[in-house]
Amino acid sequence: MERFKLVCPCILGVEGLVAEELRDMEAQNVEPQNGRVVFDGDFSMLARTNLCSRYSERVLVLMGTFEACSFEALFQGVKALPWEKWIGKNDIFPVKGRSLSSRLSSVPDCQKIVKKAVVERLKEKYHVSWFDETDTVYQIQFLILKDQVSIMIDTSGAGLHKRGYRANSADAPIKETLAAAMARLSRVRVNGNMADPFCGSGTVLIESALYALNIAPGLRRNFSAENWDQIEASVWKQEKERAQDLIRRDARFQGRGFDVDGAAVELAAANAKKAGVIGCVRVEKRDIRDFQTETETGVVLCNPPYGERLLDIKQAQELYRIMGRVFQPKPGWSYSVITPDEQFEQCFGRKADKRRKLYNGMIKCQLYMYFK
Question: What pTM does this model have?
Fold first, then answer.
């Protein structure tokens, strides 16, 4: 099967995790870059990555890269790419993209140039003067960063953080891909215990369970490339079967979620049921002041409310002081807290054993980890 370049954009700070999981999936020539990972794969790898990547934002076919400091260079660079390998004469090919720190700074103008270049290429190849665009969608994306252009086709459709289990969410949800990265970095274990005392709609709890049980996050959703003529349905069928076979059905993982909001607790339980992990998690209404470590070992992993989202700064910092009192050092237990508040350690009362910079959307956060 023919190989081609693929790229997985990701949250800043998790490029290493994406590269690691891609290598585990047997992707070739994996190269982490800033905010993305480039690798080689075939149609099976394209399907596998969409189904199984926990930390990627989406999977894109990387059509080409080149430098462009003028619209003419952009036009010629795009036109030189083999669009006819992917896009048929009746297919739909919208264009969207971003430009950062580049001379070509107008995104609408760049969109028009990219679209025109693809149209001109396909006109020559298909010997037609007009495209009705009524068939399959091939979403073209571009990124122009410091005058370096990357041109791609999106294979995912909705972002990969949309797993299919969270139709509704409580206030200020954390992104599923970030929650999965937190579970990995905090070493949630297949037969271990995990607790989230601020569970909200259950995202951190559910992603920890999916990670522990090795349930592919994309098994309950569809992807744009499932409609592509190039990829036989049998490829998707085989990759879904492979993902099902890799589920750890004998795992003894137990997750517990708590929240002061009864409606959030009900929502977390409903989402856990949709995600297929309700059998290994339980949720209940409980205040952080009443938190206790109820097993010999485990991981506390949480995204407490903070000033920029739900509480004012003083309320949030009082919450951190309470957490410092109830999250006491205990052999066999670790505590991981994500927050953008740079005063967290002072309020919590202890310096973290390790810190990891991550982004929740556009908000720069730190994952404070305590394990000693």
Answer: 0.94
